[in-house]
Amino acid sequence: MIASYTDFGTTGPYLGQMHAVIATQAPRVPRITLMADAPMFDPVSAGILLSYLCDNLPDQTLILAVVDPGVGGERRPLMIRGAKLQFVGPDNGLFVPVVRRYEDCLIEAIDWRPSRLSDSFHGRDLFAPVAAALATGKAVAGIPVEPRELAGYDSNHDSNRVIYIDAYGNAMTGIEADGLSDERTISVNGKALRYARTFSEVPAGQPFWYRNSNGLVEFAVNRGSVSRLLNLRPGMPVQF
Amino acid sequence: MIASYTDFGTTGPYLGQMHAVIATQAPRVPRITLMADAPMFDPVSAGILLSYLCDNLPDQTLILAVVDPGVGGERRPLMIRGAKLQFVGPDNGLFVPVVRRYEDCLIEAIDWRPSRLSDSFHGRDLFAPVAAALATGKAVAGIPVEPRELAGYDSNHDSNRVIYIDAYGNAMTGIEADGLSDERTISVNGKALRYARTFSEVPAGQPFWYRNSNGLVEFAVNRGSVSRLLNLRPGMPVQF
Amino acid sequence: MIASYTDFGTTGPYLGQMHAVIATQAPRVPRITLMADAPMFDPVSAGILLSYLCDNLPDQTLILAVVDPGVGGERRPLMIRGAKLQFVGPDNGLFVPVVRRYEDCLIEAIDWRPSRLSDSFHGRDLFAPVAAALATGKAVAGIPVEPRELAGYDSNHDSNRVIYIDAYGNAMTGIEADGLSDERTISVNGKALRYARTFSEVPAGQPFWYRNSNGLVEFAVNRGSVSRLLNLRPGMPVQF
């Protein structure tokens, strides 16, 4: 399966044009849109979120990940083979959380270019054909890259922050939820929130934190928008 | 074919994660998103709309329907086999209009649980694997349920109301259009509207009611938004 | 491959119902949504954009194009076979830019009607079954149409205008970019903009024009919305 993970949005022709390439070059490979509104222009937040989504993706999924604010500038195209999953996308920090979280990734810079490469749409022209080739078992020429050579590998990725706000207004953080005690309060924008297991345990209108279905701490309000209630924005720091 | 019908919205990872499961477990079954913005948190309106959409779905479609505000609380997971269609989803009133509208449904509570079931995402963890199994001809253990045992079966589902407002601003009601005379005026929010067969029969800017392509009474304005013009909201009562 | 190109939006049941038909009637043909927010109610702008998107669609794609404000009125349904691509949709000007841009198109009025044809949803009831038939190699009865007989063929399609504003706020024009000198300034809403090759060549916040990935002049701001900055709307004239 090929799963696209982009910040293209659900409108416009971009997602469709990229999928047109993979649907044609890998017609028998199932194809889904994992997410089209990955944190926009923010490869670090997008990478943290992706690294947790990976836990719930079926084995053998190839993720075509394009969050690429610097397209047209200098950055390498990458292909990454992990134990369960593969990845294709730009070397701009997006894959650092994945590579840190999953060991034994084989990273390569893509050493192939299409006959026509636009300046602004590498998703369609370069990454999609490579993804289709890998998903159908074809080899793509690559140059080995060490994890520490990835762009932004050594920067301090502070994941104690809001990384995504969904359509319900729930606010995901980059904080792993598994090790946290239920007694812990977690603070955001000056407000300390208590834990609840599920939405239905909390009265309507009251904010809480819970362990979301991807293993992350998430802020929510039963039948309401925590982001509106507490005025939350992506990137906001979280204390706990 | 598996058709998803959810209130997840088109953004975020939820729809993609659910489709990833069915694309992997039923890779050769065609898969569509019937609707991702079913009336949110409102299983009754969502169920009324679904029951009419069913008339225009191809035979043998399996509908994976997840409008589930009470996830994490107590409610049974259901699988329903009708003469033409199958359904998988929660027992919270969502399927009552379908079961009332279509006779001879075989209803079962799903007697299977995945090895890992998150508290908040049964669409991905429970309903999607069951849908993929049924669509590929596998048996899933179930416990027979009588229609009258469905949650909310006996409640008064008043369908004389606005159930959905689409992106054009058109307002669907839950009122069956087939038996209505063209002479009938229908009132909403204090305004009585006349019938027109099509948009192009009405001057731009004038509101009217018509029989929509799913057999329901719908309010519209030619090249405009009736919801904005008449200040309509989902749930508003309709008199006729 | 069947690619849908509509102004239905990504919400509501319309896109899903249309895809349900093609997924069922052509289950083995890959299927993508090329674009669901084609310029709304504006077949001319939608047609200009489509004619340029065609350059980047794989050979043998069938485009199911429905931008159809006059549905219910009198207009012919069309099927068009070009050297590389096929098209199905309404005769309302939508295909004029395609037919002008690509020579040797064989145009036919569709001489088939379904047993049940709703007044307002020809995309689902008429165009989708025809698209599925053509994509699976079945014949559909048609009546030859000369290009000059197409609705709006002789009208003056001024493409020197903004035709689409995407989710980033970038504004596409209908102006072909290939022949233009990099020295050219292009004016919109009273502001003259200079050329830049890519976003990363321009300081954040400064508007510019560039050749977009579909060969059109596009206005943009590095990490910002040019439409908000310059107050641009679809249809606005462009001078150069």
UniProtKB/TrEMBL annotation, chains A, B, C:
This protein's record includes keyword S-adenosyl-L-methionine: yes
Family: Belongs to the SAM hydrolase / SAM-dependent halogenase family.
Alphabetic keyword roster: S-adenosyl-L-methionine
Classification lineage: Bacteria, Pseudomonadati, Pseudomonadota, Gammaproteobacteria, Chromatiales
InterPro entries: SAM_HAT_C, SAM_HAT_N, SAM_OH_AdoTrfase, SAM_OH_AdoTrfase_C_sf, SAM_OH_AdoTrfase_N_sf
SUPFAM superfamilies: Bacterial fluorinating enzyme, C-terminal domain (SSF101852), Bacterial fluorinating enzyme, N-terminal domain (SSF102522)
Domain S-adenosyl-l-methionine hydroxide adenosyltransferase N-terminal intervals: 5-141
Domain S-adenosyl-l-methionine hydroxide adenosyltransferase C-terminal: start-end pairs: 161-239
Lineage top rank: taxon: Bacteria
Record has Ubl conjugation as a keyword: no
Pfam families assigned to the protein according to its UniProt record, in alphabetical order: SAM_HAT_C (PF20257), SAM_HAT_N (PF01887)
Protein name: SAM-dependent chlorinase/fluorinase
